[in-house]
Write a structure and sequence with these properties.
heterodimer; A: 452 residues; alpha/beta; Peroxisomal Thiolase, Chain A, domain 1; twelve-stranded mixed sheet; two-stranded antiparallel sheet; 12 helices; B: 397 residues; 2 domains; eleven-stranded mixed sheet
C-alpha cells in the first residue's frame, strides 16, 4: 500500500510478516500485555515527509546530512557562559543559529532561545515537506514535542534576578516565557496548528517519546499531520550539574571506546513532519521514511544509572521491533544512544547482544559529533535514521580509537559506511530509567500495521 | 476514545491525604480555604516563609508528613514534588487493590506504569542549586540533588519507589496537562503498553512558584495557589472486570484545542473559542449529547479573564443552566495537577453529596441531582484548552 504515494520507492517484501512473529505474538522476556483485540482493521501508515534541523553541525536537512556523511564534529569550547572554573569547558553549542534569520521580530520578543530553535526547525521541516505556512492550519494538525528543560535560560535569568537582586528585581515580563509547555504552543502558532499541543519531558528519551506518541495520534485517527521532535539548549546549571556528577568528558565524546571519559553536552532542535499515508498521498508528498513501532519501558532502578542487567532496555527494544511486525534479523543499523559514559555504553552493548546474538549489526552514535543534546538527542538521531534510510549511509562514530571488550559491537568507526538500509532502530535509554526505542524504515518495507 | 475505568485513586492535596480526606472535605463543602488563610497569616507554611508577602493566598497539603506513608528511609534525598507524587502513587495502588501491604497483587509491576503531568518541574531543587551556584560557587552544587532538577525526575522516582516497570510518561501542558495525561493513557492502554496506569498530575509549592504567581498579580486578583498530587488508576474495563476491581467511574471522552491570539505580540491569552472547541470534541468523542452532562467541574480559579472565558465557553456549549463547580476556589490552582483534582472532584460529585464552590458565585444553582455524566474542563494560559467527559459506572447510553 505504501508504494502508491508519488515519489515512493517501490514497496519491498513484507519482511518478517510470515514468520509467525506477527506484531502481537507472545514474547520471550517482554511481559507487557498485548493490545486490546478489536477488529482486523489496517491502521494508517505514518510517514516522515519533512525534517528540520538546528544543530552544531549544520542548519537544515542538507547541511546536517553533509555533516553526518563527513563526520563533522560540532564540539568546541563553551562560549555562551564562563565555564573556565568548572573543570570542563567543551560542548556542542549551536553557534551559527541566529533567530533573526528565521523568526519575526514579534516572535523573537515573545519566546526564549529553546522555542526559537524549535520554531526555526519547524519552519525548515515544513519547507522540506513542501508545505506552505498555514497549509496545515486547523484542528487536524497537532504539535507534540519533547524536551528536558525547555526554556532553561529564561528560568536561569529569573533565578538570577531573584537570588542576586531580590524580589523587586524579578522581571515580570520574563515569567510567562518560562515553561516547557510553551515549545509546542509557539510551534503551533508558527504553523497554524489548532489540534493537540503537548510537551513530553522525557529527559534524554524525549524525542522518541514525542515521535512515538505523534505516530499514535495519526494511527488512532486523532490527527492527519503532527509536527513533532524535540528541542533543548545548554544552560549553565545543567552544565555544572553534569560536571558535578562526574559524567562529563574533557574535550571529546568517544562512545564504545575503551578510553571513553563520559558525555559532552550538546543542544539543538530536530523537528519532523509526520503525515498519515492518506494525507501524504493526497497532496503528492515526497515520503522520506516510515515510522514503525516503538517500545517504552522503565527500569524502576536508579535515577541516573541504567539497570545493570539492562532488562528494561531490552524490553523496549524488543517491543519496538515486534510492534513493527519484523524480527531482529530485519534490522540493518542501530542509531545508538551511545552517550560515551562507562555505564551506558556497556549496558547498551548488553541490549544489542541480547537482541541480535552473534549477528554484528552496524551501530553508531551521533553523540560523538553532536554531544548529548539531552531532550533533543533522540529527535536529531531520528533525523539521522531518516538520513540513513534515504542515503544508504551509516553515520560514523568519530573519535573511535581503541575497542573495548566490554563494548564488543560493530561500531561504524570514524568514517561513514554504505550499507543496506531498509530498517533502522533508534535507541534512547534515558535518565530516570526511561527507555524508548523507535523503528524507522524505508517506505513500504514494513508489513501493514493492524489490530489482530 | 475507548472507555477507561477508574479503579482507585490516591491524592495529597489541601483537603488532606488519601481518599477519605478528599471525599470528607468534598462533602463538607471544601474546608481548605479557611485553613489556608490562617496558615498564610501565621506564615507557617512548610515550604517557605510567606511572611515576606503580605496578602499571600497560598494553600498547602496540611501538615504533610511523607514518612507516615513511605517510612523514613531514603526521604532525605527527595524534594517535595517527588514526595507528594510518590505518596499519591502508593495510596492509589493500594486503593485500587493492585497492591496490598506494599506488595503487588500478582506480579503486576511489569504491566503497570504512570502518566503524570507537571507544569514547572522542581523549582525547589532548581532554586536550591542556583543559590549555591550564584552565591557560593557552581563547583559546590550537590550532585545528589542535581537529578531532581530534571523535569521527569519525580515520575522516575515514583517508578523506582513503586516498581512501575511498564511505561513512564511525563506530560507538560500547563494546567491542562492532567487531562492530556488521561488522553495519553487511553492510547497507551489501548495499545497494550500497560494493563494499569497511574494517571494525573503533581505540582509542589515553592517560593519560586509563588513568586511567579504573585508577580503576575494573581493573588491580588483573588486567586489561591495550591499544590498537591492526584493520581487515578486507569484500566481498560475488561481488565478491571477480569480482576474483580471496583470501578468508581469511567473516562469516556477527551477533546483539546489550541487557538492563537489575534494580536501578534500577545502570548498569554484566554481563548473561549479553544475552550468551546475542546468541550465539543470531548462530547463528540464520548458520543454523548450536551444534554446528558449533569454538571461541569471547571478550572475556574479566581483569574478573572480566564474564568470569564471558560464560563462563557461552557455556557455556549452546555447552556446557561448547567451547574458549574470550581474546586480550585478551595484547593487552589494546582497547575499540572489541576485537571486530576478536577477528575477526583467529578468522581465525588457522581457519588453524591459533594459540595464544591460554585463557579458563578455562591448564589448559582448547585447540581440538582447526583450527576451521572460530568465534564471536566481546563483552560490554559496560552490559547490551549482541554476537556474530559466522565460518567458513573454502569451508566447506560
Amino acid at each position: 500500500m505504501g508504494s502508491s504515494a508519488r515519489g515512493l520507492p517501490r514497496g519491498g517484501p513484507c519482511v518478517g510478516a510470515f514468520r509467525g512473529e506477527g506484531r502481537f505474538a507472545p514474547t520471550r522476556r517482554c511481559s507487557l500485555v498485548q493490545p486490546r483485540a478489536t477488529t482486523a482493521t489496517v491502521l494508517p501508515r505514518v510517514f516522515v515527509t519533512g525534517v528540520g534541523v538546528v544543530s552544531s553541525i549544520g542548519l537544515g536537512r542538507e547541511a546536517f546530512y553533509r555533516s553526518l556523511e563527513s563526520g563533522r564534529s560540532g564540539i568546541s569550547p563553551v562560549a555562551s557562559f564562563d565555564a573556565s572554573q568548572l573543570g570542563r569547558d567543551f560542548a556542542g553549542e549551536v553557534k551559527e543559529f541566529d533567530a533573526r534569520d528565521h523568526l519575526t521580530n514579534a516572535e523573537r520578543r515573545r519566546m526564549g532561545r529553546c522555542s526559537s530553535m524549535a520554531v526555526a526547525a519547524a519552519r525548515m521541516a515544513l519547507r522540506d515537506a513542501g508545505l506552505q505556512e498555514r497549509q496545515l492550519a486547523g484542528r487536524r494538525t497537532a504539535v507534540v514535542l519533547g524536551t528536558t528543560m525547555g526554556e532553561a535560560t529564561i528560568l536561569g535569568e529569573l533565578e538570577h534576578d531573584w537570588i542576586v537582586g531580590g524580589v523587586g528585581a524579578v522581571r515580570r515580563s520574563l515569567i510567562p516565557k518560562y515553561g516547557s509547555t510553551l515549545l509546542p504552543i509557539h510551534v503551533a502558532r508558527a504553523v497554524g496548528a489548532e489540534g493537540m499541543v503537548l510537551t513530553l519531558p522525557a529527559a534524554c528519551a524525549a524525542g522518541n517519546y514525542a515521535i512515538g506518541f505523534a505516530s499514535d495520534l495519526i494511527r488512532g485517527g486523532r490527527a492527519d499531520v503532527v509536527v513533532t521532535g524535540a528541542a533543548e539548549l545548554i544552560q549553565e546549571l545543567q552544565f555544572s550539574g553534569f560536571v558535578r556528577l562526574a559524567a562529563m568528558a574533557p574535550q571529546k565524546c568517544q562512545p564504545f571506546d575503551l578510553n571513553r571519559q563520559g558525555l559532552i553536552l550538546g543542544e539543538g532542535a530536530g523537528l519532523l513532519v509526520l503525515e498519515s499515508e492518506a494525507h501524504a498521498v493526497r497532496r503528492g508528498a515526497q515520503v522520506r521514511a516510515e515510522v514503525g513501532g516503538y517500545g517504552l519501558s522503565c527500569d524502576a532502578y536508579h535515577i541516573t544509572r541504567p539497570h545493570p542487567d539492562a532488562a528494561g532496555s531490552i524490553a523496549a527494544m524488543r517491543a519496538a521491533i515486534e510492534r513493527s511486525a519484523i524480527s531482529p534479523a530485519d534490522v540493518d543499523f542501530i542509531n545508538a544512544h551511545g552517550t560515551g559514559t562507562k555505564h551506558n555504553d556497556a549496558a547498551e552493548t548488553k541490549v544489542v547482544h541480547e537482541l541480535f546474538g552473534d549477528r554484528r549489526v552496524p551501530i553508531s552514535s551521533m553523540k560523538s559529533m553532536l554531544g548529548h543534546c539531552m531532550g533533543a538527542a533522540s529527535a536529531l538521531e531520528a533525523i539521522g535514521c531518516v538520513f540513513t534510510l534515504e542515503t544508504g549511509t551509516y553515520p560514523p562514530t568519530i573519535g573511535y580509537e581503541t575497542p573495548d571488550p566490554e563494548c564488543d559491537v560493530h561500531v561504524v568507526a570514524n568514517a561513514a559506511q554504505r550499507g543496506k538500509a531498509d530498517v533502522v532502530v533508534n535507541n534512547s535509554l534515558a535518565f530516570g530509567g526511561y527507555n524508548a526505542v523507535a523503528v524507522f524504515a524505508r517506505p513500504g518495507v514494513l508489513p501493514p500495521a493492524g489490530a489482530p | 476514545m475507548k472507555p477507561c475505568a477508574v479503579t482507585g485513586f490516591g491524592v495529597a492535596c489541601p483537603f488532606g491525604v488519601g481518599r477519605a480526606a478528599f471525599l470528607d472535605a468534598a462533602r463538607a463543602g471544601g474546608s481548605a480555604t479557611p485553613r489556608s488563610a490562617q496558615a498564610s497569616q501565621r506564615a507557617t507554611l512548610q515550604s517557605f516563609d510567606a511572611s515576606a508577602y503580605p496578602g499571600a493566598r497560598v494553600v498547602e497539603v496540611p501538615g504533610f508528613d511523607p514518612a507516615k506513608y513511605l517510612g523514613d528511609k531514603g526521604l532525605r534525598s527527595l524534594d517535595r514534588l517527588t514526595k507528594l507524587l510518590v505518596v499519591a502513587a502508593r495510596l492509589a495502588l493500594h486503593d485500587s487493590g493492585l497492591k496490598r501491604d506494599g506488595a503487588w497483587a500478582d506480579g503486576a509491576a511489569e504491566t503497570s506504569g504512570i502518566v503524570v503531568s507537571n507544569a514547572y518541574g522542581s523549582l525547589e531543587a532548581i532554586t536550591e542549586l542556583d543559590r549555591v551556584s550564584l552565591l557560593e560557587d557552581a563547583r559546590y552544587i550537590n550532585p545528589s540533588r542535581f537529578p531532581l532538577t530534571v523535569a521527569n525526575s519525580a515520575a522516575g522516582y515514583a517508578s523506582i519507589w513503586e516498581e512501575l516497570r511498564a511505561v513512564n510518561v511525563s506530560v507538560s501542558d500547563g494546567n491542562c496537562g492532567s487531562l492530556d495525561a488521561a488522553a495519553c493513557a487511553e492510547v497507551l492502554l489501548d495499545q497494550g503498553r500497560a494493563r494499569a496506569l497511574l494517571v494525573g498530575g503533581a505540582e509542589a509549592m515553592s517560593e519560586a512558584l509563588f513568586l511567579a504567581f504573585h508577580k503576575l498579580g494573581a493573588s491580588e486578583g483573588g486567586a489561591l495557589l495550591g499544590e498537591g498530587a492526584a493520581l487515578l488508576v486507569l484500566e481498560t474495563p475488561d481488565s478491571a472486570r477480569a480482576r474483580g476491581a471496583s470501578v468508581a467511574g469511567e473516562i469516556v471522552g477527551y477533546g483539546t484545542s489550541f487557538v492563537p491570539p489575534e494580536r501578534e505580540a500577545a502570548l498569554v491569552h484566554p481563548s473561549p473559542e479553544a475552550m468551546a472547541r475542546a468541550i465539543e470534541s470531548a462530547l463528540s468523542d464520548a458520543d454523548v449529547p450536551a444534554g446528558a452532562i449533569g454538571a461541569v467541574v471547571s478550572g475556574v480559579s479566581g483569574l478573572r479573564a480566564f474564568d470569564e472565558a471558560e464560563l462563557s465557553a461552557i455556557g455556549r456549549v452546555l447552556g446557561p443552566e448547567i451547574p458549574v463547580v470550581a474546586p480550585k476556589l478551595a484547593l487552589g490552582e494546582t497547575l499540572g495537577a489541576g485537571g486530576a483534582m478536577g477528575m477526583l472532584s467529578a468522581l465525588a460529585l457522581m457519588q453524591g453529596a459533594a459540595q464544591f464552590p460554585h463557579a458563578r458565585g455562591p448564589a448559582a444553582a448547585p447540581p440538582r441531582d447526583t450527576p451521572r455524566s460530568v465534564l471536566v474542563t481546563s483552560l490554559g494560559y496560552y490559547g490551549n484548552a482541554s476537556a474530559v467527559v466522565m460518567r458513573s459506572p454502569n451508566t447506560g447510553r
